[in-house]
Structure formats: C-alpha cells, structure tokens
Amino acid sequence: MGLLIAILALAAPARADEVRISGRADVIDGDTISIGPLKVRLYGIDAAEVGQTCKRAGGGTWDCATSAANRLQQLIGDEPVDCVALEQDVYGRIVATCRATGADLGRQLVAEGLAWAFVRYSDAYATEEATARTAAAGIWQSTSEPPWEYREARWDRAAERSPRPGCPIKGNVSVSNGERIYHTPWSANYERTVIDESKGERWFCDEAEAIAAGWRAARSR
C-alpha cells in the first residue's frame, strides 16, 4: 500500500521533495535501484557503466562497474531503502536521494571512490569526491574515463555505423517471448545484438523515443 501511495503522489501536483519512496530494493547497477515497479536513479552521482573498466595505480584495469554495484548491494543488504524523490527524468526513472541503515547511498559510493560526483547536475557530493581523489581511493587511484565520457564516445562510434544516421540505439524483439528491448551503445549486449527490421526490430535516435515506442531498456544485471 505504501508503494502505491508513493506512485500516486508522484503523479500529484505536490512538491517533488515531499515525495518519499520506501521498500525493499533491487540493485540494477552502481547508481540505479528498483523499488517495486519504480526504477530509481541515485541523485548526484554517476557510476561506471556495465562493461566499463577503470585503471589501476600499478597498471592494468579493474571492474569498477561491478565493484560499485556490489558495494551498493552490500550497503543496502536486506534493509528497506528510504528515498526522497526529487524529479522524474525523461526515461521515466525517479531521481532521488536514498538511504539504507541511515547512510546516504550516493554519498557513500562517492566517498569510497566507487562513483563520480555528477557535477553536471549537482555538486551535492563534490566534497566527498575531492576527499576520495586526495586519498587515491577506488576510481581515483589512476586516471579513469568518467562514465559520461565513456557513453559519449561509444555513442559517437555507434552513430557513425548505424544504418539510420545518428540513431544507434538497437530496438530488439526477443525471440523467446516477443518482449521489446532496446540496447544503448554502452549496453553489455550491444555488439552481439543484430537488428532485423523485417521482424519489427528498429533503430532509435534516443532512449525517450524507444520508450515512447514501447521498448524497455536492457537489464544490466
């Protein structure tokens, strides 16, 4: 019932910062969780994309994307997550600050060097990032590509190869159940996904277009 009330509240003309969403959460990736049917993007942070790696201080790379997701799962454990919704993005996700066992999840990930402060949208965790950078923690032990640059680079390369110019998102139709799933250029299965337009599959120019057409994002975990 509480989740239903939260969903209704999001549709109501109340102030967004008064909307709370609480419940058991499943980790989708290092900066996104789901609570019931709601997908919640942690406010003010950006974690590595699935498949993205970060550089080690002594050379080589490590799976910073999986490390962030695993740490987020560890922080949540079996405890309920309490989120304060701030807005809903164009992809239908709720952008929120979330806590579990009293800890601000986004703040903790940035402080441990497992996520970047997403200063393009907020400087809420800029201090934590500066401290992690000074300590050479996690992603700051060497120079690693921020996820927004990683996404942009992969988008540009895929857009050049797309048969629909500038539209590299692949809208796949599942052979097993007919479900319509879209893959961004940074999705784990992007390269192995082949689009056959004769089967109703198609290319999209952005995620909002894919969602409006009835496709859902590929799951990252």
From TrEMBL:
Tell me which residues make up the TNase-like domain.
27-142
Q: Indicate whether Signal appears among the record's keywords.
A: no
**The entry's keywords:** Endonuclease, Hydrolase, Nuclease
Gene Ontology MF annotations: endonuclease activity
KW Nucleotide-binding (keyword) present: no
Can you tell me which residues the record assigns to a coiled coil? none
Q: Name one Pfam family in it.
A: SNase
Lineage: superkingdom: Bacteria
Question: PANTHER family this protein is in?
Answer: BLR1266 PROTEIN, EBNA2 BINDING PROTEIN P100
User: Can you name this protein?
Assistant: Endonuclease YncB(Thermonuclease family)
The organism's lineage is:
Bacteria, Pseudomonadati, Pseudomonadota, Alphaproteobacteria, Rhodobacterales
